[in-house]
Amino acid sequence: MKKFISFILIVILVLPISVTAKDDYYIDSSVTLLTPASFNSYTGFSSIDAAVYSYRLYKRNENSAYVSAEFSLICENQEYFATAEGMISGYQLPNVGLLWEGPLNGFIDIDGSIYQILVGFTKNDSSSDVQFCLTLQNADAAPVMLSFGDNVMSVAVCSQLDEYFKQNEIKYNEKDCLSEINCEAESYSINSVATFAIKDPIVQEPGTGVSSNIGPNGEYDWIDQSFALFVSDEISGYGLQSRTYFAQAYNEFIITTHSYCSNVDALFEDDLLCNAETYVSKVWLSLEMKPEDRTTTNAVQMQGADYEMYEGYDSTPMDLSPLFDDLTSWLGIGSSTLSALYEKLVGTLESSVTNTSSNCKVSLEFVFGVLTEINFDDSAYCIPVTFPVQIASESYYEGDSVFTITHGIQYRSKITDMLTGNFSYYYWNSEEVCEKVTVDLG
User: CB neighbours (10 Å) of residue 336?
Assistant: First the structure.
């Protein structure tokens, strides 16, 4: 049961941003602990007596807000303190109003040891109801999952959300599109689909096999393939597959993202009390020439290409599918075949391009909200992005330019309580891929 402890409401104006800061302190004595055994491995307790929490929500507009939160988990005479913060998104739903949802990044102190946490934050804008869903991932133990606060995602809200999905046809799973590709095999050449089809993630060496090149004329050479595991070893299998291609004729990289949502869902296969549906929440990647790899004979300039228009943070959801249109030509598949997956790929993109005398870097972060339930598991589909580069000085260039690729993915699991029909959002991260590649620009 949640009890109201104190109330302070402050309205602050900062520049053009309207900020509502809430310094309300609540206590919830009915914390839901989904993983008592793993929580016990950290704390020695298998239940939580209460959670004391507060938060501040700084509304930027109807689509974006910044949230900072702090809370304590009370177990008998022990208290475990945590903080978290992050940008969240707003969704205007029929008959529900404005729903805030998104992940917060933070830390929790357990007996002097500091652990990273992800907190799914959900709030109904028209009421004080707010929910926190915490995931603690650590390589040495099973993940901890718990929630406290209000039941924001009630059966009624869930029904409205499901109806919104049906009406707007935003809920996609790439596996549903495979039959369409197979039906069109006679019309389109799909030989190069094997380039992206990783049903059984077996590490191969670039340059081997029939699928080492992509592009209309095979201009893009496969130069690197890397896999990352989930932060928690309890989730078996890979968390991310990253492939890098390079076309010397265009001085352009292609980096693809492949997800493993099914590996998270497998964690709940034997759980009769809850059901998990996992989707891609966020992808971030960068291509960088670091100072230690930069010389006068291999220096380059980065280009943002199609992403320069997104430089800086703009949280307004938009159709991101035009950024991936080239995929149809790389795979030799007609655009109509992929439209079912990409035509309403709604999300936000933050981009930055840096060119200095010592450092060159392009960074991208794609965020897919709760209204875009999508994955890129086990098939020809992926999130492909291009990175054009150019030689800084033709007269000095001697080749062997070294680039660092950093790549990560975040997942969102919709966990449904099979007894009540209510659901909550939990978040997971893979480890990051960080690889160096060497190319000779043309």
Answer: 13
Q: What pTM value is reported for the model? A: 0.81
Distance CA 88, CA 281 (A): 12
Q: Residue 264 and residue 409: Cα distance in Å, rounded?
A: 13
- CB-count burial class (<10 Å; 0-12, 13-18, 19+) for 161: buried
**Distance between CA atoms of residues 279 and 413, nearest Å:** 6
Is 349 in contact with 215 (CB distance < 8 Å)? no
SS3 of residue 161 by DSSP: helix
CA end-to-end span of the chain: 66
116 token code pair? 């990273």
| pLDDT tens-digit map of 227-272 | 999 988 888 889 999 988 888 888 888 888 889 999 999 988 887 6
Domains and CATH numbers, the chain: 2-168 (2.40.160), 174-414+424-439 (no CATH)
Extended strands (E) in 184-235: 213-214, 220-229
What does the block give as tokens for 404? Answer: 């660092």
For residue 357, give both structure tokens.
Answer: 């005398």
Nearest alpha carbon to residue 240 among 255, 216, 260: 260
Q: Which residues pair with 126 in a beta bridge?
A: none
The dihedral built from the CA positions of residue 15, 20, 23 and 29, taken in this order, carries a sign that is negative
Number of Cβ within 10 Å of residue 420's Cβ equals: 11
Q: Side chain identity at 84, as an amino acid letter?
A: A
Distance CA 271, CA 295 (A): 56
Neighbours of 332 (CB within 10 A): 15
pLDDT tens across 190-237, in order?
222 222 222 233 344 454 443 567 766 777 888 888 999 998 888 888
CB within 8 Å of 205: residues ≥ 6 apart: none
CA triple 195-199-201, angle to 5 deg: 85
Check: CB of residue 42 under 8 Å from CB of residue 80. no
Backbone angles phi, psi at 406, to 5 degrees: -120, 135
Burial of residue 234 (number of CB atoms within 10 Å: 0-12, 13-18, 19+): middle
Q: What is the dihedral of CA 285, 289, 293, 299, to 10 degrees?
A: 160
Question: Which pLDDT tens digit goes with each residue over 304-336?
Answer: 655 544 444 445 555 666 555 554 445 444 455
Q: Residue 182 corresponds to which tokens in the numbers above? A: 């197979």
Query: Residue 227 in contact with residue 246, Cβ under 8 Å?
Result: no
User: Which of these, 376, 154, 363, lies nearest to 258 by C-alpha position?
Assistant: 376
164: phi then psi, degrees, rounded to nearest 5? -65, -40
